[in-house]
Amino acid sequence: MIAAAIVVVVYALFGFLIAPRIARPYLTKTLGELLHREVSLQRLRINPFVLSATADEFLIRDTGGFPLLSWDRLYINFQLLSLLKREWAFREFQLVNFSGRLVMRQDGTLNISDIITSLTAAPPATAQPAEVPLIRIGRLRIQDAKLDYQDLSRPTLFRTVLGPFRIDLRDFGNDPDSKNPYAFAGRTEAGETFSWKGFFYLDPIRSGGQFTLGNIRLNKYHPYYQDSVLFDIKEGTADLSSSYQLEWGPQRQVARLTGANLKITGVKISEHGLDELAVDVPSFELSGVDVDALTGETNVASLVTRDGSLVLRQYPDGVINLRRMIEPLMAGEPIQSRSPGGRSKESPTPPPGAPAASKKEPRILTSEVRFINYKVLAEDLMPPRPVRLHFDQVNMDMDNVDNPPETTATGERGFRWEV
Fold this sequence. Notes:
The protein is mainly β. The chain is built from four helices and 18 strands. It has helices at 2-35, 113-119, 222-225, 321-331, and strands spanning 38-47, 52-61, 67-79, 87-96, 99-104, 134-151, 158-173, 181-188, 193-202, 205-217, 231-248, 253-271, 277-292, 298-306, 309-314, 364-380, 387-402, 410-418. The chain has an 18-stranded mixed sheet that branches. The longest helix has 34 residues, at 2-35. The protein is elongated and about 105 Å long. The model is unreliable at 337-350 (pLDDT under 50).
C-alpha cells in the first residue's frame, strides 16, 4: 500500500508540476522552428488523472510582428483507454477566444503561404505513407472566435472581421459511418449574421443541412465586383436562407440548393461614378429557389418586387444605360480587358463563315414574376430634341418565364404614362 501510494504521489507530482515545465518550452520552440514565427505560451496545465491539458494565452506572431493566431484557453481531454481499440478518442476539445488574421497580399499570396507550403511538402519517395488513425471527438466547441481578413490584391482594400462566432461539433469521427452533426453561427463587424447547421461524412464527402445569411451589406463587397460591372451599389442589404446537399465521390457528385429564399431590401444603384440613381428598389424577393450547381439548372417559384423606380436612358452614342451597366458582367470578362466600344481586346471578331460556338445554356425557369407599382423614367438623347417619358403605376404579372428562345411566357402588363 505504501509503495502504491508513493507511485501515485510521484505520478501526480510529475504530471501536475514537472511535465508542464518540460512540455511548454519544448512546444513553443518546436512550433516556432516549424512555422518560422515567434510562438509564446503563458501557461500549460496538465491533469494526469483525467488526462487533460489546458493551454492558456497562446500566441503566434506573423513575420511583420502582427498577431497571426491566438487564444485565451485550449482545453483537451483525452481518453487513454481508446488506445486499446486502436483509436484516438477525445472526450472534449474546447477553444475559447480564438483569434486569427489572414491577409491576401498584393501578389495574390497569403501571409501563411509559406506555412502551407512547408506543411504540405511532399515526403521523400522512400517514405511509407502514414496510416491515418481513427479519431473520435465527443464534443468540439469553439467560443467567441474572430477572424480578421484583409485583401490587398484588389484595387480597393477589402477588410472584414468574422466574429464573434461559435462552432459546435458533436460525436465527430473520421470513419466512413460517422455522421458528424455540426452547427456554427456568428456575425461580422458590419452587423451581418450567418448560421449553418447540418451533418457531414468524410468518406466519401457528403454533407447536408441549412444555412442563413442576414443583413449582408452589398456595397461592402464592391472590391470584388468593381471589375465586372459599370455600376455602383450605393445602399442595400440581402438576406438568404437555403437547404443544401453536397456529395463528392468517385461514383456520384451532387451540389444542390433547395428551397432557397433571397430578399434584397433598399437597394440603390447608380451608373459608375454618377450620383443619379438608375435603380431604386425597396423590395425584391426570390422564393422557392432550387439550383443544381453542377448543371446550372434553376427553378424559381416566384419573383416579386414592388414600389421601385428605374431610369432607362439612351445616350447620343446609342448606348442604353442599363445595358452598359451590366455588359461586362454578361460578357464574363473584366472591364480592363474591354475597349471603349465594348469589344474584348483579346477576342477578335470571328472570320466570315466561321461556325458559331454552340453551348447549351442551362434552363432558368421562374414560375411567377410580379412587378408591382413601379415608376420608369425613359429618355432618348439621340434626337436633336431629346424625348422624355414618365411611366408610373407600372405593373406586370407573368407566368413560366424562362430563357430558352423557343418558349413563350404569358402574363399581363399595365402602366400609366405622361410626356
